[in-house]
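COURSE: Structural Biology Practicum
ASSIGNMENT: Worksheet 4, Part C
STUDENT ID: 0417
INSTRUCTIONS: Below are two proteins. For each, the amino acid sequence is given first, followed by its structure token string. Answer the questions at the end about the second protein only.

PROTEIN I
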Amino acid sequence: MRAAHGLWAALALLLLPAGGRALRDGECEVCVTFLGRFYQTLKDNDVEFTPASIEKELLKSCKEAKGKENRLCYYVGATSDAATKIINEVSKPMSHHIPVEKICEKLKKKDSQICELKYDKQIDLSTADLRKLRVRELRRILDDWGEACKGCAEKSDFIRRIHELMPKYAPRAAGARADL
């Protein structure tokens, strides 16, 4: 009798939907986007899907990652200064072609900070009034472009540098702006 109740309880747990465990829309934004792009790159480059080769490629990708994606690599242990190494939690499931959403779900269980990462809001350079932005935001625009503003002491210096570089990095925005 007791075994029958245990069997029914186990069966009920299997049939019930896994409430609260699946990712919601927008959750793990950086993880899903970065690993999705990484997976597609592996497929496009015909990389062998073994945990070792995926780990090697992930380390390469993480060397080039910036901002929030670099922070994700740090949490996973794919950077040189990372304290923990859970990189195999990415490479093993990916070698079996498990969807990146499921990989991120498992990573969330290991380290909840991974799913707290969100991309910074992008500034629309074609309509934004640069004079109304903070210096930190202007500096972030330049950082996203991989540029620096040496000798910039005032906000107007940053704005001038962005105007100089906009045709190179954001040609549509430069064409749409009348104040250039």
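PROTEIN II
(use this one for the questions)
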Amino acid sequence: MTEVKLAVLGGSGAGKSALAVRFLTRRFIGEYASNAECIYTKHLCLDGRQIHLEIYDPCSQPQRGKLCLTDELHWADGFIVVYDISDRASFAFAKALLYRIRESHIGACKKMAESSVVLVGNKQDLCHMREVGWDEGQKLAIDNKCQFCELSAAEHCQEVVAMFTKVLRAITSNFRVKEKRRPSGSKSMAKLINNVFGKRRKSV
């Protein structure tokens, strides 16, 4: 069985928890506690391959100040960075997140496949309140060499499923092309991170 670890990141109110739950359960829940973090776990079959998926949904970080993503960057195989199209501040925060992800992988002399990172403009159902244009999201994704899409966790269940599936397919494809390498001592690091993140683990 293939293990895949996916981190869903974004500012408070961007809808990252709603996206994760929408994918895992096909249900939409509008309100979440922004000070809670958890890992959702799910077994699924993708292209005939059994996958044990873990989705890390951290508590929302303040949208100002220095970003600290060290644990997430070591832990995750891929990232979904979410912003709210009706909130320009969340877009600026997503930009900072993408920069941090890219910077960390350049600094570690390792290249994360472009398809393993996706920028998501959420809340497309609030288009009448839009503050961030589609072309702005597309340009940010191109600048950071990642995928991009706009959708609504509230209204677009199939689009949410398709987006997650595309990322998972890209990650597992990368596993097949090249065996995943971790630095020495990675097992103890993974155990430590899982102990930290595993305080609120939910199986769906």
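ANSWER KEY EXCERPT:
Q1: Residues 157-177 form the longest helix (21 residues).
Q2: Residues 184-189 have pLDDT under 50 and may be disordered.
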